[in-house]
Amino acid sequence: MNLIEREVITITRSRIHLKPFQLGRVSYQAVETTPYGIEMINAPSQWSEAQGNDVVVAVLDTGCDLTHPDLRDRIIGGRNFTSTDSNDYSDSHYHGTHVAGTIAASLNGVGVVGVAPKVKLLILKVLDANGSGSYDSLINAIQYAISWRGPNQEKVRVISMSLGGPNDVPALHDAIKRAVNSGILVVCASGNSGDGSDRTDETTYPGYYNEVVSVGAVDQNQKLAPFSNTNEEIDFVAPGVNVLSTYPGNRLATLSGTSMATPHVSGAAAILIQKAEKESGRTLTEPEIYDLLRENTVSIGLSRNAQGNGLLYLQGGQQSNSGQSKKKKKRTLYI
């Protein structure tokens, strides 16, 4: 099946709505494949030391295929915020399953492998089968992620949100500030309203909030995707064009969008958290996690409004080969 859809992420005062930018070929695959994006960010170089073991990433999206062979062992829990049945957080769309696979698909010899193949996923369904949801659902899911505790008192360390729209909603902003203040790294898609020029700014929320990690998209040749937003709040770019990942029904699919770039950064954060906390013997703060990401980038020769700190590239203990001064994130804390 070959389908092409333009991604239109729209937002109103009462609803959020999501359509993926481009859905490519959907297929079955028995032999495990490492998607090009996983290689591009150099994730496999880290797996002998860290695979995101026991780090919890909350994925706020359309849910997840809970029986997919690449994902079923990665899911630690979940909740549905779109209906009265809070226990049904399965994916009736496909976007959330795809995002989850890029973060965490298991290294199991079949399908695909994700950035952090031993990370734990907390699946928080905030968008329904049509990719639509309310702000209340999104805000409640963020608050749930902050207070959630796992069976061994695990806490959410990263929130991954591949969604957004044009309006600044203060209650959503406040919820994100609370998450950041509680030590959670919030990673968001920058948006798909780009016009191919870094001389014009495109803003999408929550990706434009200063407190979040805003992620733009590049293609397999490290060229900025023409749909990727550019503005002063971009923090990193990651692979987001023709990204192969998990799809409901034990299948794989390629999708494109800043939605697909975002989970590369979320998975990388999990690896860096595991490595650094093992070495230091303490829990990292949110600014420290952000700084680790900054240290693991390389410039691809674009303006800061296009690439932020640069292309995510896990160094494997080496120094960044960028040589450029890094963009320091300002933190606006919630009181």
TrEMBL record:
Segments of skewed composition (Low complexity): 315-324
Keywords assigned by UniProt, alphabetized: Hydrolase, Protease, Serine protease
GO molecular function, one term: serine-type endopeptidase activity
Keyword Hydrolase belongs to the record: yes
Region (Disordered): 315-335
Chain intervals with Basic residues compositional bias: 325-335
Keyword match Nucleotide-binding: no
Family: Belongs to the peptidase S8 family.
Protein name: Type II signal peptidase
